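Title: Prediction job returns without error message
Component: structure pipeline
Severity: low
Priority: P3
Assignee: unassigned

Description:
Job completed but the reporter wants confirmation the result is attached to the right record. Sequence as submitted:
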Amino acid sequence: MTQKPASRIVHINGWPDTGKLTVGRLLAKSLGARLIDNHMLLNPAEALFARSNPLHASLREQVRRAVFDHAVRADPAESFVFTDALSDDADDSATFSWYVDLAAARGADMVAVLLDCAPEENARRLVSPGRSEALKLTDTAKLQQLRANYQLLRGLTEQTVVIDTTKLSPEQTAARILAQIGV
């Protein structure tokens, strides 16, 4: 009989406004996990520097490193749900390895979740109220450019869940993820 890991790392990846944060909140509640939204890691740099400024990337990495260094030392029974928007380029692949390394260091199960939706629905959601105040992307042309030039990173883990959220509520999406990971 194999022993169940003490904790779980769930990494939710998707384009801006595919439901990552809302689904992440639901999953964290269902799993009794802590939620680390990508904007917790990104917004300090967004508030201080333009993305073209090298200090933006430097601060993002320092904040991420500090959070991950502390997450490694969290209670071994603690689970985490992370959200992110990673593409299939080398930098984002390296960032994803941080999650894999965190799970390994904690002896935790790693689950990669990929959320996507139809481009038209994605653009419609992108302009919803409150996004700009949260320093989230609201520029539909930028979203179209991202979608045209990049593919979402598909986490290469033992458990990978891929869901199209176009016609699903956040509750339906979370339920599907929980069912696929055996919760």
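Comment from assignee: result matches the submitted record. The helical segments are 20-31, 38-48, 54-72, 90-106, 119-126, 140-149, 170-180.
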